[in-house]
Design goal:
Layout: H1 2-19, H2 23-35, H3 39-51, H4 60-79, H5 83-95, H6 103-115, H7 119-131, H8 140-152, H9 156-167, H10 173-185, H11 189-205
Helix pairs in contact: 1-2, 2-3, 3-4, 4-5, 5-6, 6-7, 7-8, 8-9, 9-10, 10-11
Organism: Undibacterium pigrum
Keywords: Repeat
Protein name: Sel1 repeat-containing protein
Length: 206
């Protein structure tokens, strides 16, 4: 338990230092965490060496090594059933982050993560099917299936999106507002702004 808390604290400090581009302090923390085979530390090291700054020289070879370690650890976690690792690998394939872009594999791993109950993957898949991204042909049925799955797990943006659908054409505004309120309660600021806009509009009408 103590070890877990220590690694969490180290990661928090490392991420804060990275956010300030303070690579001098982030580097030793990330190296210790990477030695413990923590994927997030490996990918942060890859980013660091890819960019470089006054504290850490840019080194594409080291960046590639750390990306390789990151993907190795992700794939091992995927074999162990980790949905979050599947989502991260899918994202890397979609956007070509540290790996060659492969939309087919991106969809494969998004779907794997979504099928294991990863709400972010479910919502992302619904968007892919809606807009026909990642080499997919737009499919409203698949879009709604994955959106519904994400809503059931109370993914904030999915709730907001679902709520807007109810609000359209006066389909069921009260139900729509319930979804949007729940989204706002879960911290999705766009939903909060929408509710504020509705409130102001109602006051102006009165």
């Amino acid at each position: 338990m103590t070890k877990q808390l220590n690694t969490q604290d180290m990661m928090t400090q490392a991420l804060a230092a990275c956010g300030e581009l303070d690579y001098k302090h982030a580097l030793p923390l990330l190296e210790q965490l990477a030695a413990l085979e923590i994927p997030e530390a490996c990918v942060r090291l890859a980013y660091m060496y890819a960019d470089g700054n006054d504290d850490v020289a840019k080194d594409e070879a080291l960046s590639t090594i750390w990306y390789s370690k990151y993907f190795f650890l992700l794939r091992r976690q995927i074999q162990e059933g980790d949905a979050g690792a599947s989502y991260k690998l899918a994202s890397s394939y979609q956007y070509g982050n540290g790996i060659q872009c492969d939309e087919k594999k991106a969809v494969e791993f998004y779907t794997l993560a979504a099928s294991k109950g990863h709400s972010e993957a479910q919502f992302h898949l619904s968007c892919l099917w809606k807009y026909g991204w990642c080499g997919l042909k737009a499919n409203p049925e698949q879009q709604m299936y994955w959106l519904d799955q994400a809503v059931r797990l109370e993914h904030p943006e999915a709730l907001y999106t679902f709520g807007l659908m109810y609000m359209q054409d006066d389909f069921d505004k009260e139900q729509g507002l319930r979804f949007i309120r729940r989204s706002a309660e879960l911290g999705f600021w766009v939903a909060g702004d929408y509710l504020e806009m509705i409130s102001v509009s109602q006051k102006n009408q009165n």
